[in-house]
Amino acid sequence: MSNAAWHARIACGNEVGAGFLVSAHRVVTCAHVVRSSGTSAVTVTFPNSRGLGPVPAVVAVHGGWSGDAADPGDLVVLELDREVPLHPAEFAPPGAELGEPAPTLVAYGFPKGYDEGMLARYQAVPGALVLDEWRQLEAATAHGQALAPGFSGAAVALADGRVVGMVSTVAGSRDGRVGRMLPTQVMARYWPELGALVPTPDHGPHTVRRLYGLVRRAVAEGADCDPDRLYVDAVGPFGPPLPEGGFASLGAAAGYVQWEVPEGEAVIRFADRLQEVLDAPPVRPAVAASWSPILVELDHSGAGADQVTVEVSAYRDGQRRPVGSHRLPRGAVRTYVQERIDEAFTQLAPDADELITFVLPREWLNEPVAHWECGVHDSTPLGCAYPLVVVDRSRHRSGRLRHQLAKKWQKLDALPGGRLHRVDCGTAERPPSLRKRLRDDDADLAGFAFPPATARPHFEVGLNTPVPVLLWPRTGCTDTAHHGPCSGSEFLDELAGSVTGVPPAELPRHVMALRETADADDDPDRHWAKDVQLLWDDPRCFPEPAASLHSPVA
Question: Whole-prediction pTM value?
Answer without folding.
Answer: 0.52
